[in-house]
Amino acid sequence: MREIATSIGESAGRRREVLRVLRASPDPMSIAAIADLLAVHPNTVRFHLESLVGDGQVEQVEPSRKGPGRPPLMFRAVRQMDRGGTRHYRMLAEILASAFAAEPDAYERAVAAGRSWARKPDAIPPAPPAGSTADDAVEHLVDMLDELGFAPERRTVDGKQQIGLRHCPFLELAENRASVVCPVHLGLMQGTVQSWQVPISVDGLEPFAEPDLCLAHLTVGAAGG
């Protein structure tokens, strides 16, 4: 296994070298020219170029015709940031959540952020069809939350409508920053029903009301809010 890992690491390193050479060159380069610079076999360069072209990091360009015979294939690096690298969105989310949490009005600002996002064009699905009932609107909200990964389920307790959320797309962050993440979710739901202009309101969100459940409390037959 160690030999396999070493081989993979060497291959990735060689691919980075090929890309580095192309990035440093002001002009397109042939396979032979790259191989000479790296002191490797042209087939090695050809193999890594195929991968780099497939990843969109390198592109083949039309060679300039000089003299008889088939001109060599020419390549150049695509001038853009590397889109194949590692992402650390959780770290970014933690930074932003920490900044929110440090504010004296963190809860209100987090709710407002969720509402604002819901009002962005194409941020949420279209409103229920005209003539839909309040019950249809609740189902529409449940469908939206399902698409976002909340694993929602409708509940009725003591005649009150609720939506249980069995999954949180930001669970690890919510466990440590519930004072920010959960209000954002509340604002998202509130902003959604406001944008839809349907006769329901989302009155509150109870984080971890049960060990495996968060609860959104609704009023059906009220203006969205």
Summed up, the helix count is 8
For the record, the CATH class of the largest domain is Alpha Beta
Q: How much helicity do the residues have? A: 40-55%
What is Rg?
27 Å
Integer average pLDDT: 88
Outline of this structure?
It contains eight helices and seven strands, in the order αβααββαααββααββ. By secondary structure, it is an alpha+beta fold. The chain folds into two domains: 1-77, Arc Repressor Mutant, subunit A; 89-220, Muramoyl-pentapeptide Carboxypeptidase, domain 2, CATH 3.30.1380.20.
What's the arrangement of secondary structure elements?
Elements: H1 2-24, E1 29-30, H2 31-38, H3 42-54, E2 58-61, E3 74-77, H4 89-101, H5 106-118, H6 134-147, E4 152-157, E5 160-165, H7 171-176, H8 178-196, E6 200-210, E7 213-220
Antiparallel strand pairs: 1-3, 2-3, 4-5, 5-7, 6-7
What attributes does this structure have?
225 residues; alpha+beta; Muramoyl-pentapeptide Carboxypeptidase, domain 2; four-stranded antiparallel sheet; 8 helices; disordered N terminus; Transcriptional regulator
Task: Walk me through the structure.
With 225 residues, this protein is an alpha+beta fold. It has two domains: 1-77, Winged helix-like DNA-binding domain superfamily/Winged helix DNA-binding domain (Arc Repressor Mutant, subunit A, Orthogonal Bundle), CATH 1.10.10.10; 89-220, 2-Layer Sandwich (Muramoyl-pentapeptide Carboxypeptidase, domain 2), CATH 3.30.1380.20. 48% of the residues lie in helices and 18% in strands. It has eight helices and seven strands. It has a four-stranded antiparallel beta sheet with strand order 4-5-7-6, with helices on one face. A three-stranded antiparallel beta sheet has the order 1-3-2. Strand 6 (200-210) and strand 7 form a beta hairpin. The longest helix is centred in the first third of the chain and has 23 residues, at 2-24. It is elongated, with a radius of gyration of 27 Å. The model is unreliable at 1-6 (pLDDT under 50).
